[in-house]
Amino acid sequence: MEETGVLDVGSGACIDERQRSIITTGRNKSSIHCSDDSMAGSVSQRACVFCGARVVLNPVTDAIHLVHGPIGCATYTMDIRGSLSSGSELYRNSFSTDLKEKDVVFGGEKKLAACIDEVVTKYHPPAVFVYSTCVVGMIGDDIIAVCKAASARHQIDVIPVESTGFMSGNKVIGYRAAAEALLKLITPKEGETVQMTRKLNFLGEYNLGGEKWLVERYLREIGIEINVAFTGDSTVAALKQAPGACLNIVQCTGSMHWVAQNLERTFGTPYIDVNFFGAENTAESLRKIAEFYEDEEIMRRTEVLIDREMKNIQPAIQKYREKLTGKRAAIYVGGAFKAVAIIRQLQELGMEVVFTGTQTGKQEEYDRIRDMVDEGTVIIDDANPAELEKFLLEKEVDMMAGGVKERVLAFKLGIGFVDHNHDRKECLAGFEGAVRFAREVYITTCSPVWKHLKQTPPCKED
Predict the structure, then answer these.
(1) Mean per-residue pLDDT, 75-93
(2) I want to staple 330 with a disulfide (CB 3.0 to 4.6 A). Which of 118, 177, 355, 406 is the partner?
């Protein structure tokens, strides 16, 4: 490590220009570079602006999601969130204008207008989200004008999502594009009013494995109702009632902080950050919500729920802790809120987090991560596979938690792996989810297969 605290990554496995995006914790307090665009030539997971917008909006269950671009863009992001629905399944379909070479030369606005007319006539959705892609930015199609005209024709919300890839090399810009589209949807039209309630909005919850339903059950038990989630298991009609909530709770800060800030500025709705991954995080989040309502009965019910659930899960957590204490772990996930939650969970299991990183973390979030881990831990922003491999081996990692793209790399290196990706179906939230997560960590970390995989095969005689 250099005097600045920045890790020297000038080896063949890493790119020199990435040096300030990787730090090692210690006495020095150098800042990590986390707002730079992904490097050209570096295989990154955060470079697609359109993808960032699609993962936020796709769980709106009864809307049409129309991708204005080549068919590959729609294919790449089809059902990308994998979120569950209690009603409409329209969002499971993937619609595309399928731009061809001719459209690139002569423009695709007429084709887009025709596609909107077709899907509205066939499916009668309450709203259509139209996503722009890199090609659309290149040819200059005016999707705002096309959507405005289509909205007037069909008397529904046809909302442009300005997620053209050439805007940036960072999918966080796509989060912002999705947020702007959501605000257009939920802002009351002239003459419309939204009734104020004592319910809350759950921002940054995508109901991948039923997490929204689980938290809904907890809150209902303590006397609080969810107004709408952004955007897991949501509908267009429910989202339009968002201004009527008395509180916004924010889980995925990367995708929803900007929305929460704008809801507070526009409608006066306060927000608090929560995290329902891990037992301790869940307990703290429930207490924060209960304190906001300043209701003694709600706070009493909250403590009863927490006490009961903690007692139920402690034997299982202790059993896994005995097996996992001292094991070395790595984390590479999309958002910092998830990294923080996993770090805490692994530490509660007695494991040492020696390597961690995210695709979209902010400076203040990396500062918090630094405070949570031990000295010598490698922290990385927007990693590429070569860097992941380098530090997984150097840090002698026993288990990695990450997304689906990291699974194959971990397995090839003989390292256990837990999937915490946005297309999983196992619910890892809440108290029950903490036990499921601990069980998955134990099964993969302590599997006997790894010692056989790492054995050097005996030499064969000629």
Answers:
(1) 86
(2) 355
Cα–Cα distances (Å) from 198 to 50, 101, 243, 244, 294, in that order, read 35, 53, 11, 8, 12
Q: Which domains does the chain have, with CATH numbers?
A: 1-33+325-424 (3.40.50.1980), 49-186 (3.40.50.1980), 200-302 (3.40.50.1980)
pLDDT per residue over 398-446, tens digit each? Answer: 999 998 788 999 999 999 999 988 777 789 999 999 999 999 999 999 9
pLDDT tens digit sequence for 10-39 = 444 567 778 888 889 886 677 887 777 777
**pTM of the full predicted structure?**
0.90
Assigned token pair, 147: 């959507």
Q: How far apart are CA 198 and CA 212, in angstroms?
A: 18
Helix (H, G, I), strand (E, B) or coil at 128: strand
Alpha-carbon distance of 300 to 295, in angstroms, equals: 9
Enter the DSSP assignment of 450.
H
More confident residue, 336 or 321: 321
The two three-digit tokens of residue 69, written as one number = 């671009």
DSSP three-state, residue 407: helix
324 near 446, Cβ under 8 Å?
yes
Q: What phi, psi does 354 have (nearest 5°)?
A: -105, -10
Q: 130: part of which helix (H) or strand (E)? A: strand 127-132
What are the residues facing 379 on neighbouring strands?
23, 356
Tracing tokens 């989200």 back to the chain, one arrives at: 129
Pick left, alpha or beta for residue 256 (phi over 0 → left; psi -120 to 50 → alpha; otherwise beta): alpha
238 token code pair: 């429910």
CA-based R_g, the chain, Å: 23
